[in-house]
Every structure is written in structure tokens, then in C-alpha cells.
Amino acid sequence: xxxxxxxxxxxxxxxxxxxxxxxxxxxxxxxxxxxxxxxxxxxxxxxxxxxxxxxxxxxxxxxxxxxxxxxxxxxxxxxxxxxxxxxxxxxxxxxxxxxxxxxxxxxxxxxxxxxxxxxxxxxxxxxxxxxxxxxxxxxxxxxxxxxxxxxxxxxxxxxxxxxxxxxxxxxxxxxxxxxxxxxxxxxxxxxxxxxxxxxxxxxxxxxxxxxxxxxxxxxxxxxxxx
Length: 226
Fold this sequence. Notes:
Layout (H helix, E strand, L loop, with lengths): L4 E9 L14 H4 L10 H8 L5 E5 H6 L14 E5 L6 H10 L3 E5 L14 E5 L5 H12 L3 E4 L3 H9 L5 E7 L29 E8 L5 E7 L2
Parallel strand pairs: 1-6, 1-7, 2-3, 2-6, 3-4, 4-5
Antiparallel strand pairs: 7-9, 8-9
């Protein structure tokens, strides 16, 4: 395979939502710990997260929401990070990930991205006039030695991975909650198919295992077979 083996790893509600609502002020990491019936089992998700691949893919929008443009710089971790971003990260946010990462790779279509002002040995930029996740993944493997990649981006970008047939495995922790709201981000968003001719764009799955966790949480793992 000329790209990394990919796993979509996410926490979602039973109805497939990855956020408590449609506002950026709402966030699972911030809000679930406040809710009785959810806060008790939430640490299991973070424990599982610590066992995922040493390469992690996310987006600048998600990280902006998490506050990396203001947070104090972190200690170095064993993880290498890949972020897709055009205009959400500041110079502080880019430096934050340089400090945190073994290798930090930024994928961007913005020639004026603040990352170009940062001089860090572990910072690498993949510039694309037009986004191609397939080409970016190929470069991650061929140029940076990324063989396995955990994806934790938002629903829209997850939808791009799905349509491009770039998911190999799905690993989802299901929280015991119904959230609702058609504007609320779900595991896979993006464009919908409109005809039978597009049925091949669906991601058909084969169950690997289903584990009942504590406090009514469930972990479900699949292989993508098409």
C-alpha cells in the first residue's frame, strides 16, 4: 500500500453525533464531564485513545476550538501530528504543535499560512493548490515514514476520507446519550449521495469486535471492506 493504514477513532453519541450541539462553544471534552451518566464512563475513551497510532490526523478548526492558539506550550509527546489547516491556526498554534510533536506535518492550500514564519526542525509543510487527501497520505508515508495513522477530524473532513476510500478501519466509542439536531456534527458529514450510481461511495464494514465498557459505554471496531 502506498499510503498509511488509517483508522477513524472517535467518540460519538448513540445517534452518531460528535459534538453536544451546533455551536463552537459546545465541546464533548468540556461538556460531557458536567453531565451525570456520561462523566462516569468518559475516562475510558481517553484511556483507549492513549493506545492509538503514533501518528495522528486532525484539523486546524478542531484544534482552534480546543484552544491551541492560546494554550501554554506543552511538553514533547511520542506522537507525530498531521493537521489540515488553511486559516485556523496562528503562529502560536503552529508552535504549540511543534513543541508537542515528534514530527509535525501541516497540509495547507494557503501560501500565506503562519506556519511559513516558523523555524522549527520538526515542522514540515505539504502545500497543495487543491486538496488531495490521497496525495497527502502518499507523501506522509513516502517522505515521513508514516505507516499507520489515526484520524480524529471533524465530520466534514471525515466525509472527504470516506468518499476518497481512504478509511481502512473504524474504531468508535459510543457514549450513552442521544443528542439530535441536524446541524450538529456527526461522525461522517459532507456531501450526500443522490443516486444509485453513487452507492459505491458508501463505506461497507465488517465487524471486528464489540466490547461493552463500564457505565453503559460501548466500543465497536470495524474493517472497511470496500
